[in-house]
């Protein structure tokens, strides 16, 4: 179902451009697009050399906003393909005057165009769409096609932290990470009864918690140094 355009979309987007690094929407083949690199200069953007953490699929920004407030020692790049929700997320960060968050509207398949190799310390995949129908498998953010992209972005021993409410998607993700040869650790089949500390509840997660549904979580280590 197509999402309804938010009120005053264009005006609100214009007001957010100071925090938007790119607004990408195209029907071109992403494999051709990424050949023309436009790497971000994170030191120039954030004004410091702090490590960069990226959330792919930031939604309305609840997670990245709270992370940025808890961890001013890190910079955060929030990626979202949906124009409506990224505007709302950007507005929330700007309203609270949080300086260590920037946004980028694009699909994950385009990240190699903008992200310098080895420049990301950690990637968060929080409640990504599971795309349960098999014909949409290649859209799942843990599909094998995305693994080289993540490997490009992440530094040595960089990690992906994934959370999902979908058991089948979680099993699928484990299979895909394992097929790519990354190390998995801290696998939880019921995050909120695991004793894990420091969890930030996302918008979707709050809904599933209210229904007593388990949350699944893992950490995947890329580019392991020897």
Protein described:
By secondary structure, the chain is an alpha/beta fold. The protein has a single domain, classed as Rossmann fold, CATH 3.40.50. The chain contains nine helices and eight strands. It has helices at about 10-15, 30-35, 40-45, 60-70, 85-95, 110-115, 145-155, 165-180, 205-210; strands at about 20-25, 50-55, 75-80, 100-105, 120-125, 155-165, 185-190, 215-220. Helix 4 (about 60-70) links the parallel strand 2 (about 50-55) and strand 3. It is globular, with a radius of gyration of 17 Å.
- Give the SSE string: HEHHEHEHEHEHEHEHE
Strand content: 15-25%
Radius of gyration: 17 Å
Number of helices: 9
The main β sheet shows up as: 8 strands, mixed
State the fourth-level CATH superfamily: Vaccinia Virus protein VP39
- Helical fraction equals 25-40%
């Amino acid at each position: 179902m197509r999402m309804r355009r938010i009120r005053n979309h264009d005006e609100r987007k214009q007001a957010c451009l100071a925090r938007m690094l790119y607004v990408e929407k195209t029907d071109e083949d992403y494999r051709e697009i990424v050949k023309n690199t436009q790497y971000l200069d994170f030191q120039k953007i954030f004004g410091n050399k702090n490590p960069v953490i990226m959330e792919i699929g930031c939604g309305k920004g609840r997670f990245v906003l709270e992370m940025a407030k808890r961890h001013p020692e890190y910079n955060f790049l929030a990626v979202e393909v949906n124009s409506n929700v990224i505007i709302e997320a950007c507005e929330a960060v700007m309203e609270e005057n949080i300086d260590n968050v920037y946004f980028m509207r694009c699909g994950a398949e385009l990240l190699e165009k903008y992200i310098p190799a080895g420049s990301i310390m950690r990637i968060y995949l929080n409640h990504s769409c599971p795309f349960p129908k098999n014909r949409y498998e290649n859209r799942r953010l843990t599909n094998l096609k995305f693994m080289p992209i993540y490997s490009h972005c992440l530094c040595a021993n960089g990690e992906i932290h994934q959370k999902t409410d979908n058991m089948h998607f979680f099993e699928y993700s484990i299979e895909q990470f394992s097929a790519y040869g990354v190390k998995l650790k801290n696998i939880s089949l019921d995050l909120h009864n695991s004793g894990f500390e420091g969890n930030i509840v996302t918008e979707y997660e709050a809904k599933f918690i209210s229904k007593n549904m388990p949350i699944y979580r893992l950490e995947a280590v890329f580019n392991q140094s020897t």
